[in-house]
């Protein structure tokens, strides 16, 4: 489908830019200062045009491994973590150098999924972002890989997802993912010559999702799969997303000003910021519900104890939990009661809550405004 790009983008005030590992290194094994200088210059031009820009950068582990003279893609977790901490500071030094040439101050924000999943921390992060932007600072984000690994605890795991979460959190109008591919194709273009380019995606249909194969680059971690996951997160936030080729001249500038470049993901939906946060947060436990409760949720009604079959994990009131029906996560929610309390009132009518718990501040396990359907 060919839609007018300027019309799709509308007014773009706040832009998040994700720079992938393969872009930072321009396919090689060292950081490309030329590329980073070019990004910094384009960001300066966007800011001159009145836009606010935030960056999510990859590349720390690869850079760290090289600096440490370690072998690429090590299996040992401590080596990867050490490389992340070495590489992160080199990476920031390079970004700082590039932005300094444009007279722009940058800030480093390292985040983990655990931090993100804590309501207080994330509300506080919003204040930090607003404050930095009000001082014309460009915030540069990365996952704090030095202290989190997927083998040990919850992680975003890739910066496509992280950048979409940041875009959603910061109420950005546009996320630009700069990659080693110029957009979405019907199949992986590095494997299939007959892959056809898709300029515009209006719906994330199962067909579109199937187009994403795994990453082919040796340094990137996400591939197209995580970029489509990012598109879904952006869609919830009413944020447009563009995947474009990082080496194309002035790619960021052109993408953010409505030039026909890359693949654009249209977004017209918008769910509340709290629900978006829940959907991306790490869950502390699970509540299994029956079909009747499932029907209520799809009709945007609250979850009553009578529809709860089972509770697992340990969580408090207000923590993020998974709502599961027939073995599938159907929603995320912040409950009104703890796991221990819900275990005691599950399957009961709400008028029994007071008898069992000795209190009844709520008739519902979770209010509809605190339930985000997946
Ligand atoms: P980055 O480091 O920029 O995140 P990745 O290597 O992780 O880049 O992801 C981009 C790669 O995804 C492409 O180079 C390509 O090999 C692969 N890919 C898989 N399926 C598709 C598709 N349908 N369209 C485009 N690229 C695809």
Give keywords:
374 residues, Archaeosine Trna-guanine Transglycosylase, Chain: A, domain 4, 8-stranded mixed sheet, 5-stranded mixed sheet, binds adenosine-5'-diphosphate
Topology at a glance:
Blueprint: H1 5-9, E1 14-19, H2 21-24, H3 33-48, E2 52-57, H4 60-67, H5 77-100, E3 106-111, H6 113-117, H7 119-134, E4 138-143, H8 159-169, E5 174-179, E6 184-185, E7 197-198, E8 200-201, H9 206-210, H10 223-236, E9 240-245, H11 251-256, E10 263-265, H12 273-280, E11 285-289, H13 291-298, E12 308-313, E13 321-325, E14 328-333, H14 339-345, H15 353-357, E15 371-373
The protein binds adenosine-5'-diphosphate.
The site of adenosine-5'-diphosphate (ADP) has 23 residues, from helix 2, strand 6 and helix 10.
Task: Describe what you observe in this structure.
By secondary structure, this protein is α/β, with parallel strands linked by helices. The protein has 2 domains: 5-275, Acetylglutamate kinase-like (Carbamate kinase); 283-373, Archaeosine Trna-guanine Transglycosylase, Chain: A, domain 4, CATH 2.30.130. The protein has 15 helices and 15 strands. Strands 3-4-2-1-5-9-10-8 form an 8-stranded mixed sheet, with helices on both faces. Strand 13 and strand 14 form a beta hairpin. Adenosine-5'-diphosphate binds at residues 20-23, 179-181, 184-185, 187-190, 211-213, 215-217, 220, 222-224.
